[in-house]
Amino acid sequence: MAHTGTKAVIKASTAISIGFHQLSSRFPEPLECLTAHLLLESSEVLGGVKPANLVSLVNRIRPCGRNLYQLWQAHYDEIITRLTGICFKVLQTRESALLLFCYNPDHLERHLAHHGIRCLLKKAGYDTSLSSEALLAELCRRIGNSDSFPHEIGLFIGYPAKDVAAFMGIVKLPFACQGPWKIYGNPTQSLCLADVHRSSRAAMGNQLTECNSPFDCLEKVSDRKTHFFHTTTDKDFQFHGVCL
What we know:
Layout: E1 2-4, E2 7-9, H1 30-41, H2 43-46, E3 52-58, H3 68-82, E4 87-93, E5 97-103, H4 105-113, H5 115-123, H6 132-144, H7 153-156, H8 161-168, E6 175-178, E7 182-184, H9 188-210, H10 214-220, H11 234-238
Antiparallel strand pairs: 1-2, 3-5, 4-5, 6-7
């Protein structure tokens, strides 16, 4: 990966990602099928490399013959009880799909307590004296009252602050490249973070191909207790020129 001016050459990750279509046949029992999908889509949160993630459940029959949207409606209570270490909040419900916010409560609390994140949320119109749960409730309210996503949602799910701030127009940084999110300015650390995310998903995919039950995978997931903002990178990576 090289960086020259505003252009970036992206080196592909060596992590091999496993899609859910490759896993669904391993878990014919409906609850286990849904659980495997949720674990794969929440892998970065379970691995401690993101505070939260978005999970979409589309209301349609998948090639495996199951409808994850309907399975969620049927097994919501049991899923919430059995999936320890992560929480799910429904951000949006439509006839065609529902959107879940999957998060680690402790990590999200620490993440949203960071001064730089609070600074950006304040610029997005949030009352930053509120608790993390109240900030999340405000995000839910904004999503419910709009047909489009509020741009600051990237702050809640752990995208680099400088990329979110540039996307929101709070700071002026040149567009560098398209990764899992739009990357601005020097892309090096953003691309490294994206690679960590991909590796975490690949690791969960591998776990799911080897385990007898998706619930067994929860016991094997290593929580790295990542601090999302290291003091050595706050100024040069996350918040340089953002919180003036």
